[in-house]
Amino acid sequence: MQLYQNQQLRIYNSLSGKKEIFKPLNEGHIGMYVCGPTVYSNVHLGNCRTFMSFDMIFRYFKHLGYKVRYVRNITDAGHLVDDAEDGEDKIAKKARLEQLEPMEVVQRYTVDFHNILQKFNFLPPSIEPTATGHIIEQIEIIKDILEKGYAYEKNGSVYFDVVKFNETNEYGKLSGRKLEDMIANTRELAAQDEKKSPQDFALWKKAEPEHIMRWPSPWGDGFPGWHLECTAMSTKYLGETFDIHGGGMDLKFPHHECEIAQAEASNGHSPVRYWMHANMLTMNGKKMAKSTGNNILPGEIFTGDNKILSKAFSPSAVRFFMMQAHYTSILDLSNDALLASEKGYNRLMEAIDSLSNLEAGKSSDFDIASWQQECYEAMNDDFNTPILIAKLFDAVKHINLIKEGKENITSEDKSNLKSILDGFVFDVLGLESKTNVGSDSDKLSGVVELLIQLRKDARENKDFATSDKIRDQLAEMGIQLKDGKEGTTFSVS
Ligand SMILES: [Zn+2]
């Protein structure tokens, strides 16, 4: 018997606007697709939050005993700068500016993405397909949509006919928009525009001669529209209908709306049973944006190297901070919020660490079974991690009372409590134990401090060759020494 058989999960479905009882298409199996990053710059923390929410969801499904196929794509072509059809490809633009091959840009930022996710202790998805690896599949879908009459070709580009689609289907149902209102609120088409209606979107774009990312197609050389890759890859790996499609709130429109339209036009039915959207991360009460400087990279939190921070924070403390908010709520990041979360994370870890040293008694003052079910109920209610964390602190309170000799626990309950806490804290929330994380970084600090001392000795002996060698070789390893009034400090990049 698997856990999911007696835990009834409810999920907020963005399509219906309601919490619904979750029932996968095939019992015991779940197909989940999440829109991945466009790899043309370092992954920002807001994106990390979205992916972390789905990592937690993936983890909980696995914890319940489901077999999950989790597909999270890498967008390495076709995502235009301004989401309008006349924009430049984000990756091609970056490649042009930095004089790199587009695939060098893709490689660099895919590696960065994976490094950051690994630091945050993410589980890898089951499949991580790329847009450029699925051009043939995308061309096949375009042919199919053209054949069914929901698209048209113009000068080597192919556009989805939204007005035609809306005659038989409902364009805008996910984001709660009506096509008539959209049309009323948009500017007139420019005379040179190839589209029949401003709402139409590109399935295939003709590549101008200077465009470096291009593939042959029945309509000439070009590249696929961004929305199409997700339809192609989700259908290929999860089928025409699958259980869960997730992404950031900002992708609801137009991206996910277009995915629905493409799939319905091609397959004749709705692709997704539960649409899930994760909310955004703000910083000091404002939207994060590179342009305003109200922005932080994950790496800057781990080193403390950002003006809003008073210190560095470990990936687990940041993960704990993110898990303290429900995935559908806006979460605000600030130095104070991180300090408070770090404190909470430390208290939780200290309680778990002290558990094995508790003295067992003849009876228990803590009803573990009902507490455990309350933890499950929190998670079953649309993955309510803040409530789960509050429940975990109920256990912390009891552990501390037992430590002080004010309460008792039997040895059987003690080992139950340990395995339940391990399950929720490490498997579901994906936190890492401080002793695990700490030991390596403590050793590293010790070694670097020793080298700083040796460098100081060398300088006092006027042996500058040795002191420079220590500094330069550490820099090569990504460890920067900074000389200041209070002595030498270091940061790891
Ligand atoms: Zn997508």
* Structural class based on helices, strands and sheet pairing: alpha/beta
Each distinct ligand: zinc ion
Mean pLDDT: 92
Uncertain spans, ≥5 residues at pLDDT below 50? none
Proportion of helical residues: 40-55%
**What does the main sheet amount to?**
4 strands, parallel
The global form is globular
Strand order in the sheet with the most strands: 4-3-9-10
How many β-strand stretches?
A: 15
Beta-strand share of residues: 5-15%
The helix tally amounts to 16
Q: Radius of gyration, Cα only, in angstroms?
A: 26 Å
- How far the N terminus sits from the C terminus, by CA atoms, comes to 47 Å
Please characterize this protein's 3D structure:
The protein has 493 residues and is of the alpha/beta class. It is 46% helix and 14% strand. It is built from 16 helices and 15 strands. The strands form five sheets. It has a four-stranded parallel β-sheet, sandwiched between helices. Strand 14 (479-484) and strand 15 (487-492) form a beta hairpin. Helix 11 (335-355) packs across helix 13 (385-403) and helix 15 packs antiparallel against helix 16. The two termini are 47 Å apart. 39% of the residues are buried. The model has no long low-confidence stretch (mean pLDDT 92). The structure holds zinc ion. The site of zinc ion (ZN) has 3 residues, from loops.
Short note summarizing the structure:
By secondary structure, this protein is α/β, with parallel strands linked by helices.
